[in-house]
């Protein structure tokens, strides 16, 4: 029976809908529902799913099914747009990876393994399926076997959990097994149809081991084999359906070597290329590899020696060779086929393909006979040892909805926490539960599962329980106060009074936080160090931190102060994000008319928004477009509004750059601002046929497709396998193809760069680029005028504003310890630019005074209320000079400049809490110290989403273009990048987790402005710069 896409899609929709309903209702599946769930086959053969949400039309026959699918996903997401995107992406990802194993193969493997255990009087205690899909290989285990399954795909994992409630399911990648609370950490049998591809997997354990383990992690199929062997009990069985890359690829010899030296090879069977046609509608080469772990192995068999090597066949009728294939498969009875011939695969490489022309029943019988023969000959009962149970923490089920009636745990054991939970609580929070003191452990398997909270008891004395009862009210009052004031930017005096009351009560009974053994007690709580720093030790004196007296998350707007118009303008920009005329009137004591005159040239009236705007904002951006829009409404204005708007138009006109004519423009083929239609017209003129040219801005790639046969493209502009179409793409990218040729060296055929062909291709490419300019010069005036308009509107419409800082007064700035008594004009201008724009780049020569600019700008912005807690970051070699400059410039400022000892793991948490709980005029850190500040979980989530969305958009745009079939290399590269990015992000999270303490994060510290000195040396600032919109970056020119 052939693969029916519509039927498969409808079956998937029914299964997903059923799984979601079962999860929502928290129950087991009925017999009928299990039948529905078992029909889920993923979208491996349904390429049309990639078109969902794009401009590519869905086939008419599938539109109704797709509408229903989106309705099911939308209902499941319950209005959560992020979850909806995750579910949709889950489906699209399965198009590339979901190829389900035929049932007959699983039945044959399962029966043989069970028969082997029975015949040898062995019991299968544990079974693992590391890439489970919907649990195809789970029947390998019997009723008494404890089964564990991993499935990374979200929707597939839901179906798996609903279909197999008696299995411990993790909707996570196999690479996370060491961090999961599996009931067993070693297994008697591991079987699966594993993923394949040259994308990397991040496994922290393998990363630390290095060597072959780190090498295996570079490709997912290699990783699965090595990791599975590590997770097998001695004598355990490993059975994987895998791509032929494991056995055939020369670069994977290290994996084959690893396998045969740690395991006995039982079965190596080449499967028919058409094996997955019925389940996924795809033809792909695959093997069935079965091993038995043998940790004390000494010698290799002849079969195993052959398995380590590869060979090539001569292509009939030529002197060329096929791709590499494993030597073992040259032996009889190592492949399932009735017909075998050499053909090209999907990559154009000649390989040997295998086909089975008979009935499926005959295929299953043949497979079973081969497996039986192999197991009878190569399985060793004496290797099978008593399994290492290795019981870890027990996970009730993925969705915590099955087998919930468990006996109550004794008080000394970990157990589910059912007490009060607050938003500010996190992992390691100290609580009193059922008269026991302990900590909380949070865990959420995935976005569908509920957060589980486990109570982990601590063995403590009764007196510490009494102390905890006096500590908890302080902690609760502290977090209620800080949360409300940071979120609402409003003062809560009653909460502050309550915090002081609880603190005073505690101190009277137990002493200051810094005295006795209070600090050790606070260390039991992951939130303890943050609470600890509401008390400060200054020398021998103990005092309360700033938060006990005033807000530290924001600065109260005090309109009673008297400011100059210029200072009031800068302050207004921070408080309100705009020019607030009422605020200016209150803080200066002047009228609106007086202010408009005093600030002439600094503020402009924008009739489009009916607001005043500062010069930096109004005269920035597309001034040409802005001027046009204001002119359209100018006639409708009256009185002062018309007068002010006319002044604004005049200022915009004066700021508008002169039009650059065509003759002065330098056009280069491939410039991204030139419409693709222009390049398409040129290609038509060059090749003589209609041509489609598309540009993908996401990954900066052009795609060119000729709409007919062009002798010019295939003869005049053709070098080797590169025709005019390919060279035209290189001309657009201004690159040269990497052309290779095959030569014989030391008796072996190798590929080397073909310098002559590369040079010829380069000449053709440069000729195409030159002809583009010649062709452009002969285009009609209308075409050239359009290019002039596009260029000027796109690039020649922005004005860099001038910053005049001469009016600033700099209160409290001292020059007593400096050899000069005033700032340079360039320094004043730079400080004013920073104050006006809330950030900027100062790229001045060495010795121009950038350190003073940083110090003064930070203090001034804090003084004016533009920022609350500035941070300066510098290199370790000169950060002390920055601190010394700040102290000299502002001797009375409240400056925090921690030393090396403050950043040791023991003191770091206390320092971070001090940053949060005090109103510092400035904080100065080294780049290394700053990197140790933990990022919030929300920030990490934003990073992951932002990086992945770019790649996912690229894949969608490629699919929309309709040219994905002709650009398989581009598509494959994007898919690989997507997978590798996932691995990179996991690695980043792991490294951050190791490097940074579980304490106050960057967001909670209240730092709202960063000055980065020497930032061009620090690549990692790509990380926060993307997420913080209030950074000031100070560069040094070299």
From TrEMBL:
Organism: Bacteroides caecimuris
Every DNA methylase adenine-specific domain range: 174-308
UniProt similarity note: Belongs to the N(4)/N(6)-methyltransferase family.
One Pfam family recorded for the sequence: N6_Mtase
InterPro entries: DNA_methylase_A-5 (IPR003356), DNA_Protect_Modify (IPR052933), P-loop_NTPase (IPR027417), SAM-dependent_MTases_sf (IPR029063)
Protein name, entry field: DNA methylase adenine-specific domain-containing protein
GO molecular function: DNA binding; N-methyltransferase activity
This protein's UniProt keywords: Coiled coil
Coiled-coil residues: 941-998
């Amino acid at each position: 029976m052939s693969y029916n896409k519509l039927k498969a899609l409808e079956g998937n929709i029914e299964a997903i809908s059923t799984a979601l309903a079962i999860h929502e209702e928290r129950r087991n599946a009925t017999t009928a529902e299990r039948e529905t769930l078992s029909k889920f086959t993923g979208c491996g053969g349904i390429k049309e799913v990639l078109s969902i949400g794009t401009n590519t039309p869905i086939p008419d026959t599938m539109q109704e099914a797709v509408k229903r699918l989106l309705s099911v996903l939308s209902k499941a997401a319950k209005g959560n747009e992020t979850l909806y995107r995750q579910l949709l992406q889950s489906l699209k990802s399965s198009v590339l990876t979901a190829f389900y194993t035929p049932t007959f193969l699983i039945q044959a493997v399962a029966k043989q393994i069970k028969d082997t255990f029975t015949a040898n009087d062995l019991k299968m205690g544990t079974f693992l399926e590391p890439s489970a899909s919907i649990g195809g290989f789970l029947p390998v285990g019997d009723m008494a076997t404890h089964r564990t399954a991993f499935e990374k795909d979200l929707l597939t994992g839901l179906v798996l959990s609903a279909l197999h409630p008696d299995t411990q399911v993790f909707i996570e990648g196999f690479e996370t097994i060491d961090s999961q609370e599996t009931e067993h950490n070693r297994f008697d049998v591991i079987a699966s149809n594993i993923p394949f591809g040259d994308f990397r997997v991040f496994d922290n354990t393998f990363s630390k081991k290095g060597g072959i383990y780190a090498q295996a992690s570079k490709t997912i199929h290699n990783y699965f084999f090595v990791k599975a062997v590590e997770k097998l009990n001695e004598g355990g069985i490993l059975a994987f359906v895998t791509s032929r890359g494991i056995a055939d690829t020369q670069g994977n010899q290290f994996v084959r070597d690893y396998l045969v030296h740690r395991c006995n090879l039982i079965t190596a069977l080449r499967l028919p290329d058409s094996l997955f046609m019925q389940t996924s509608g795809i033809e792909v080469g695959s093997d069935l590899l079965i091993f038995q772990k043998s940790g004390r192995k000494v010698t290799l068999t002849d079969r195993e020696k052959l398995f380590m090597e590869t060979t090539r066949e001569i292509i009939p009728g030529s002197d060329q060779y096929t791709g590499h294939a494993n030597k073992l498969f040259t032996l009889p009875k190592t492949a399932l086929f009735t017909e075998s011939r050499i053909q090209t695969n999907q990559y154009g490489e000649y390989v040997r393909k295998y086909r089975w022309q008979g009935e499926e029943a005959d295929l299953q019988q043949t497979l079973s006979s081969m497996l039986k023969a192999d197991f009878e000959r190569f399985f060793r009962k004496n290797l099978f040892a008593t399994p290492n149970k290795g019981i870890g923490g027990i996970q009730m089920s993925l969705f915590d909805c099955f087998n919930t009636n468990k006996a109550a745990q004794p008080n000394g054991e970990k157990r589910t926490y059912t007490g009060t939970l607050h938003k500010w609580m996190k992992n390691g929070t100290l609580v009193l539960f059922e008269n026991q003191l302990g900590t909380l452990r949070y865990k959420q398997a995935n976005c569908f599962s509920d957060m589980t909270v486990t109570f982990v008891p601590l063995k403590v004395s009764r007196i510490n329980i009494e102390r905890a009862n006096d500590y908890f009210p302080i902690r609760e009052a502290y977090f209620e106060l800080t949360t409300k004031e940071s979120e609402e930017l409003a003062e809560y005096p009653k909460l502050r009074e309550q915090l002081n009351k609880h603190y005073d009560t505690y101190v009277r009974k137990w002493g200051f936080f810094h005295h006795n053994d209070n600090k050790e007690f606070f260390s039991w709580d992951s939130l303890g160090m943050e609470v600890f720093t509401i008390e400060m030790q200054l020398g021998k004196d103990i005092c309360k931190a700033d938060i006990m007296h005033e807000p530290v998350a924001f600065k109260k707007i005090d309109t009673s102060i008297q400011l100059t118009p210029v200072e009031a303008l800068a302050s207004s920009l921070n408080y309100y994000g705009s020019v607030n005329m009422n605020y200016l009137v209150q803080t200066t004591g002047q009228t609106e008319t007086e202010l408009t005159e005093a600030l002439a040239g600094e503020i402009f009236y924008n009739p489009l928004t009916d607001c005043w705007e500062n010069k930096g904002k109004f005269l920035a951006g597309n001034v040409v477009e802005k001027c046009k829009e204001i002119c359209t409404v100018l006639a409708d204005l009256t009185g002062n509004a018309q007068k002010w708007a006319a002044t604004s138009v005049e200022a915009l006109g004066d700021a508008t750059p002169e039009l650059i004519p065509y003759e002065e423009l330098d056009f280069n083929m491939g410039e991204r601002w030139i419409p693709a239609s222009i390049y398409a017209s040129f290609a038509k003129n060059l090749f003589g046929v209609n041509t489609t040219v598309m540009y993908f801005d996401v990954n900066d790639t052009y795609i060119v497709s000729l709409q007919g046969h062009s002798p010019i493209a295939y003869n005049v502009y053709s070098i080797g396998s590169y025709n005019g179409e390919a060279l035209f793409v290189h001309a657009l990218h201004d690159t040269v193809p990497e052309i290779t040729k095959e030569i014989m060296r030391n008796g072996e055929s190798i590929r080397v760069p073909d310098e002559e062909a590369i040079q010829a291709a380069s000449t053709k490419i440069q000729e195409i680029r030159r002809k583009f300019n010649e062709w452009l010069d002969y285009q009609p005036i209308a075409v050239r005028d359009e290019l002039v308009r596009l260029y000027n509107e796109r690039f020649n419409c922005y004005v860099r504003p001038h910053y005049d800082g001469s009016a600033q007064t700099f209160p409290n700035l001292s020059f007593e310890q400096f050899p000069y008594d005033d700032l340079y004009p360039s320094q004043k201008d730079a400080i004013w630019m920073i104050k006006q724009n809330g950030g900027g780049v100062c790229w001045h020569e060495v010795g121009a005074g950038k350190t003073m600019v940083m110090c003064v700008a930070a203090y001034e912005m804090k003084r004016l209320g533009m920022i609350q807690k500035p941070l300066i970051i510098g290199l370790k070699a000169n950060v002390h000079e920055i601190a010394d400059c700040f102290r000299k410039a502002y001797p009375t400022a409240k400056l925090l400049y921690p030393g090396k000892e403050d950043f040791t793991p023991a003191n770091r948490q206390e320092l971070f809490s001090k940053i949060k709980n005090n109103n510092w005029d400035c904080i100065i850190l080294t780049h290394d110290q700053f990197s140790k500040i933990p990022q919030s979980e929300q920030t990490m989530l934003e990073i992951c989403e932002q990086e992945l969305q770019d790649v996912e958009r690229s894949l969608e745009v490629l699919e929309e273009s309709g040219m994905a079939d002709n650009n398989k290399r581009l598509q494959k590269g994007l898919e690989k990048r997507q997978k590798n990015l996932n691995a990179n992000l996991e690695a980043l999270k792991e490294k951050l987790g190791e490097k940074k303490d579980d304490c106050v994060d960057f967001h909670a510290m209240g730092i709202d402005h960063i000055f980065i000195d020497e930032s061009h040396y620090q690549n990692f600032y790509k990380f926060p710069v993307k997420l913080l919109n209030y950074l000031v970056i100070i560069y040094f020119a070299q």
